[in-house]
Amino acid sequence: MTSTQTAPSGSPIIVVTGLIKQFGRFAALRGVDASFDAGRLYAILGDNGAGKTTLLRTLAGLNRPTRGSVSMLGSKDLRKVCQQYGYMAHPSLLYDEMSGMENLRYFARLYGIADDQRCAAAIRAVKLDPELARPVGQYSQGMRQRMSLARALLHDPAILLLDEPFSNVDVRSAREMVGLLKQMRDGGKTIFVVTHQATLLEGAADEFVWMEAGQIVDRTPGLHRPGESPVPGQSPASSTEAR
Amino acid sequence: MSLTRATLAKDLRLEWRSKDAINSMLFFALLVVVIFSFSFDPTAEESRHIAGGLVWVAFLFAAVVALNQTWARELRNQVLDAYRVSPAPANALFLAKAFGNFIFVIVLEALMTPLFIIFYNLRALGPAWQLPIVGALGTWALVVNGTFFAAMSLRTRSREIMLPLLLFPISIPAVLAMVEATSSILTGEYSAKFWIVLLAAYDVVFTTGCLFLFEIVLNAE
């Protein structure tokens, strides 16, 4: 799969400037400044309520910044570049009553794709069977997550924004997904993964972005932050799950 | 238009499989017809005078049931977000939803009208060919506003109560026109032309307004 528009690897593809997002009186993001390079895999980590999902939704254009801005591929109007990113949320964003292929066929139309082969290829890329006639509502959680990833990949975006792609997925499937993400990163895509299962991405992610209380507090090449215990913010349960 | 067609086809397929809207609408409308017929027990002459109001009240209430379902399936699994991050225009979604609701309510009307005729012993004394025109224009008036306000109340906590609260007041001119036009055709006492023109004008104004504002409603947080 090749994207229609990609920034050269190593140059900033997303620039976030003074980003504040408030929900009523609660500030979910409190002045985020960051730039992210093309062709890298970023793991966004932090405790619940740190602002990870809000940051991802803001990058996807689903939350409007209260203050500050997001520039993606040089454009501050995210609608203009929405063909260039794919978004996978914690819920599946799929219709439970339709099969995987029917779902993807519909979402493909939203991106102007009328080719069933593209849908089938996206389903196969996540190791599912395009012929499966069962409605998505009858899929296991892991299958649903993978189909959701297929939906995000469908239009071959340059940037992937993935929120908890490994939640409720068994370790083997999660590792397969990490392998797929590595492959896509090596193919030039920029990938953001919000996760609580950071150890899965050890050795795969290029950078770990640590969030606390609505701010990016650290960015490290490895999973260990200098001066802290080996895997801060990781619950023993999630570390075990990842093993 | 191809996106509207694709979304409409998807909605019809989902409804065909779940039958969420059509079953609840049919059951509700049937109850209204039966209860009204027992409550009033009118003569044929009286029926012609009150049937316009009864028919449209039944259809309006039943339509609200379908309108509440319209967006509910987009909220499950947050599927609406997938639409919002895509380059698809908001209006394609709105039109598909409005056409879908139009089809559901028209099917309901087609099934319920014979029952109304039997229960109320109805026979049109005026130009009966105008009835389908009033039906189509009136139904569109209900569903276009209903689809819009259902989307508007989507993120409110008590959206099923919010919809009638928003929809009914703004539909008063349309309901008045539908009832008057239907009554005039049934009784043959006066011309329905003024009310039909009013309905058509209402449809044009509100369809344009809804299309103009829907993108803001869709992306509201």
Radius of gyration of chain B: 18 Å
Order of helices and strands of chain A: EEEHEEHHHEHEEEH
Text of the CATH class of chain A:
Alpha Beta
Strand content of chain A: 25-35%
Helix content of chain A: 25-40%
Spatial separation of the terminal alpha carbons of chain B? 27 Å
Number of domains of chain A: 1
What structural keywords apply?
A: 243 residues; alpha/beta; Rossmann fold; six-stranded mixed beta sheet; three-stranded antiparallel beta sheet; 27% helix; globular; disordered C terminus; B: mainly alpha; 84% helix
Chart the SSEs and their pairings.
The complex is a heterodimer of chains A (243) and B (221).
Chain A: E1 12-23, E2 26-37, E3 41-46, H1 52-59, E4 67-72, E5 85-88, H2 100-110, H3 116-125, H4 141-153, E6 159-163, H5 171-186, E7 190-194, E8 207-212, E9 215-220, H6 236-242
Parallel strand pairs in A: 3-7, 3-8, 5-6, 6-7
Antiparallel strand pairs in A: 1-2, 1-4, 8-9
Helix pairs in contact in A: 2-3, 3-4
Chain B: H1 2-18, H2 20-40, H3 44-75, H4 79-84, H5 90-120, H6 130-152, H7 159-187, H8 193-218
Helix pairs in contact in B: 1-5, 2-3, 2-5, 3-5, 3-6, 3-7, 5-6, 5-8, 6-7, 6-8, 7-8
Please explain how this structure is put together.
The complex is a heterodimer of chains A (243) and B (221). With 243 residues, chain A is an alpha/beta fold. Chain A has one domain: Rossmann fold (3-Layer(aba) Sandwich). In chain A, 27% of the residues lie in helices and 26% in strands. Chain A has six helices and nine strands. Chain A has helices at residues 52-59, 100-110, 116-125, 141-153, 171-186, 236-242, and strands at residues 12-23, 26-37, 41-46, 67-72, 85-88, 159-163, 190-194, 207-212, 215-220. In chain A, the strands form two sheets. Chain A has a six-stranded mixed sheet with strand order 5-6-7-3-8-9, with helices on both faces. A three-stranded antiparallel sheet of chain A has the order 2-1-4, covered by helices on one side. In chain A, helix 5 links the parallel strand 6 (159-163) and strand 7 (190-194). Chain A is globular. The two termini of chain A are 31 Å apart. Residues 1-5 and 232-243 of chain A have low confidence and may be disordered. Chain B is mostly helical and 221 residues long. Chain B has one domain. Chain B is 84% helix and 0% strand. Chain B has helices spanning 2-18, 20-40, 44-75, 79-84, 90-120, 130-152, 159-187, 193-218. In chain B, helix 6 runs parallel beside helix 8 (193-218). Chain B is globular. Chain A binds chain B through residues 60-64, 79, 82-83, 85, 87, 89, 91-98, 102, 106-107, 109-112, 135, 151, and chain B through 2-3, 6-7, 10, 13-14, 17-18, 73, 76-79, 81-88, 219, 221.
